[in-house]
Design a protein that fits this description.
Layout (H helix, E strand, L loop, with lengths): L1 H40 L14 H10 L2 H5 L15 E3 L5 E3 L5 E5 L5 E7 L8 H10 L6 E4 L2 E4 L4 E9 L5 E7 L1
Antiparallel strand pairs: 1-2, 2-3, 3-4, 4-8, 5-6, 6-7, 7-8
């Protein structure tokens, strides 16, 4: 009987080790996606402002093609709206982290308009895209609708939002990226 208990205990231990290893691998994939995006966003010349990670020449050119009155009518601290720096604190990577919602990080362009939003749910993943849509609408225009996978649109502003998700091993959403 004692030999069977040892074998059973060994099997249970091996299963636990495999489960822990799979979880660690899945978290590493999530972290890798997160840091890939962070590192790609942080490649900036030393002559630019610390938070000016985006190609502001392209943004300025695109902005000049569209009506500036629609952007000025946007509320502060949402995509295409002005960043109110008093509501945020800047981290060492140049992101502006919301003082009210620590899962929110934004990047403005050189004019101070929000061009990128990152919503971090690694600690409390969202079970579905429907749950994510509630958060997406908080950080975009109030009339935003999903057009297709990864593309949302505001008729009021005539602007598109590109949305990407990072998921964990349980197919839960851990990160939401909203960009132009």
């Amino acid at each position: 009987m004692r030999g069977k208990n040892k074998i059973l205990l060994s099997i249970v231990a091996a299963i636990l080790i495999v489960i822990i290893g799979v979880k660690a691998i899945n978290q590493a994939k999530v972290d890798n996606d997160y840091y890939k995006l962070d590192s790609s966003m942080s490649k900036v010349s030393s002559s630019k402002k610390k938070h000016d990670y985006l190609n502001t020449d392209e943004i300025a050119e695109e902005s000049s093609k569209t009506s500036s009155s629609s952007e000025s009518s946007m509320p502060d601290n949402v995509m295409y709206g002005h960043l109110n720096e008093s509501d945020f604190k800047q981290d060492k990577l140049g992101y502006y982290i919301s003082k009210e919602f620590d899962y929110v990080a934004v990047l403005p362009d050189k004019d101070g308009n929000v061009r990128f939003v990152r919503l971090d749910f690694v600690d409390t993943p969202l079970p579905s895209v429907d749950d994510a849509n509630d958060y997406i609408s908080d950080w975009t225009s109030d009339d935003v609708t999903k057009v297709s996978d990864g593309l949302y649109h505001s008729d009021k502003l005539n602007k598109n939002y590109h949305v990407k998700f990072t998921k964990n091993g349980q197919d839960e959403i851990t990160m939401i990226y909203i960009e132009q």
